[in-house]
Backbone:
């Protein structure tokens, strides 16, 4: 990354663990479209494919890839390739899915990525099983009006294209996490070529709108931020009005990139959506996490609605403590609750005094067991009383002796010399 931006530590760790895939040009018959993507998580799980906006790359979803893959989900994050119209996008994306051998998908799109996800769901309804949309729109006429120079965008120099993209990201004072997300995306924009920016701006300004979808509203989730972002509120409201049966998840603040600024909330809503549409996580296939020993077949998740939303947070467990923490392979949360007697089993004061036995050998057990228990207790108590009286008498005699010695010393100071 260029400039003075320093990438966060979790991103550096992500890059060291998750490989970046590239599909060569010769895989495709439709122009020269190279795909750059991440694919992480159990391959047997239907994937959640993340599509970024105009300023995004496949890297901007690294927090979702790391968090969801550790829960047993498969996440694919893609770069938007060099396509120049909506029809070309649908064909190129379908070819990409064929190459990676994925047929039924769940799409998560933000901004322009949400619009492209809707386009693919409209023209290839059999391949899209569910949609998650965030800060997106239904038609491009608003952006086409803001770009009167769209016919010459393919000839525009790179620095002007970057300047136009960055002006769309609202500047000014932000919350620290939102400011960090903006810095990260700005650094990603610096990695984009002129063809990347020109093709994405062309898709944004190309006259198009979303027609009827065969996908049920119940298989859609809309995640919008309530603070200011580059997508006008009117356009976001049109999406909600178009799909009234979709699940809504409003986030109080998050800016243009809530997947970076509010990753915990976004990841929670994504997991709830995947469970609701029947995606079963395979936590037992995650390296470093032992297989579950419960009766549900050892899977980390299940289809349908979760019984308790608290089990979807990264650090929470069930209220009864019966479910292990899916984020780690060891720890007290994954162990059954301890019996209080076992915790104090090595304390002599808490040993049983009756006929109960323990695994360890107690040398006092022969003395304090059997029918002579009461007699032994009386004997021990009597001995203790005698010892106490003996020490009291000795202490009194010592006190008197010291007093006599002190008086004698007053009369004859040389006694202590």
Residues:
């Amino acid at each position: 990354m260029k400039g003075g931006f320093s990438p966060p530590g979790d991103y550096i760790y992500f890059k060291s663990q998750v490989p970046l895939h590239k599909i060569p040009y010769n895989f495709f018959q439709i122009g020269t479209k190279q795909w750059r993507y991440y694919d992480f998580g159990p391959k047997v799980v239907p994937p959640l494919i993340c599509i970024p906006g105009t300023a995004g790359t496949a890297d901007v979803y690294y927090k979702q890839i790391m968090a969801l893959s550790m829960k047993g989900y498969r996440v694919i994050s893609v770069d938007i390739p060099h396509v120049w119209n909506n029809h070309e996008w649908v064909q190129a994306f379908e070819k990409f899915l064929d190459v990676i051998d994925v047929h039924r998908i769940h799409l998560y799109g933000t901004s322009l990525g949400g619009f492209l996800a809707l386009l693919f769901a409209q023209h290839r309804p059999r391949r899209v099983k569910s949609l998650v949309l965030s800060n997106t729109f239904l038609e491009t006429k608003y952006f086409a009006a803001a770009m009167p120079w769209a016919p010459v965008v393919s000839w525009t120099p790179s620095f002007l294209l970057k300047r136009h993209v960055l002006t769309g990201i609202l500047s000014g004072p932000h919350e620290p996490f939102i400011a960090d997300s903006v810095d990260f995306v700005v650094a990603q924009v610096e990695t984009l070529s002129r063809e990347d920016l020109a093709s994405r701006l062309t898709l944004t300004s190309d006259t198009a709108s979303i027609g009827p979808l065969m996908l049920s509203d119940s298989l859609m989730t809309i995640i919008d931020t309530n603070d200011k972002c580059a997508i006008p509120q009117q356009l976001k409201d049109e999406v909600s009005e178009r799909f009234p049966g979709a699940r809504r998840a409003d986030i109080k603040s998050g800016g243009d990139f809530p997947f970076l600024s509010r990753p915990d909330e976004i990841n929670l809503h994504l997991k709830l959506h995947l469970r609701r549409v029947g995606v079963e996580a395979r936590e037992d296939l995650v390296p470093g996490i032992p297989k579950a020993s419960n009766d549900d077949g050892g899977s980390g998740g299940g289809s349908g609605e979760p019984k308790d939303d608290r089990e979807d947070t990264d650090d929470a467990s069930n209220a009864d403590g019966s479910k292990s923490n899916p984020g780690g392979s060891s720890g007290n949360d994954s162990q059954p609750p301890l019996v209080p007697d076992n915790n104090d089993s090595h304390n002599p004061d808490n040993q049983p005094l009756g006929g109960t036995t323990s695994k360890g050998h107690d040398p006092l057990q022969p003395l304090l067991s059997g029918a002579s228990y009461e007699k032994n207790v009386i004997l021990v108590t009597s001995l203790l009383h005698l010892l106490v009286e003996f020490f009291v008498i000795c202490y009194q005699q010592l006190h008197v002796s010291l007093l006599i010695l002190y008086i004698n010393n007053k009369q004859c100071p040389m006694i202590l010399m």
